[in-house]
Write a structure and sequence with these properties.
Blueprint: H1 6-18, H2 24-30, E1 57-59, H3 65-73, E2 80-83, H4 89-102, E3 108-112, H5 125-136, E4 140-145, E5 155-160
Parallel strand pairs: 2-3
Antiparallel strand pairs: 1-4, 3-5, 4-5
Helix pairs in contact: 4-5
């Protein structure tokens, strides 16, 4: 049996200590990701058309029913969240544009728009704007009002194209 001399042992230890462990998953996630420019081609809503308690839902054709069901139940591990409470329509659009640009590589996001309790006749201008914005955004392939535990009809989960 051959023994390893001290110089070889020292060389091995210095090489190992100098290198950080490799994260195999991190490389797979970032390899083909291209950063798209922020979406700015949205239009503003001037009139509220959605009631604060109304459930909203949208999905492009061909999307997995299992995935839509998962989103509706709120069975999502981590979701970046944007709270629009207190913002006016123009501020909300700008916030959503920047937020979605920043989180474009995440599968799900959550946007809290509120239920419009302080709006006229229970109609929510901010909720209407959020739904309009998500319908216009080219990266959004589905969205749905959150389950009660995640904000109910005062928030939406959106599924982004990867």
């Amino acid at each position: 049996m051959t023994s390893i001399n001290e110089d070889d042992k020292q060389l091995f230890r210095s090489t190992i200590d100098a290198n950080a462990p490799i994260d195999k998953d991190a490389g797979a996630r970032t390899t083909n990701q291209v950063n798209l420019p922020a979406f700015t081609a949205y239009s503003y809503i001037t009139e509220a058309r959605l009631n604060g308690s109304e459930i909203v839902s949208y999905a492009k054709n061909g999307l997995s029913p299992k995935l839509i069901k998962k989103m509706k139940r709120g069975d999502i591990d981590y979701t970046a969240t944007l709270d629009l409470h207190g913002q006016i329509v123009t501020e909300a659009c700008e916030s959503m544009s920047q937020f979605m640009h920043h989180h474009q590589h995440e599968p799900f996001i959550q946007i809290i728009h509120g239920k419009g309790y302080h709006s006229e006749n229970g109609m929510s201008i901010l909720k209407t704007q959020v739904v309009s914005f998500l319908n216009q955004h080219p990266q959004v392939i589905a969205f749905n009002s959150c389950p009660d535990k995640d904000g109910g009809s005062g928030a939406v989960f959106a599924l982004l194209k990867q």
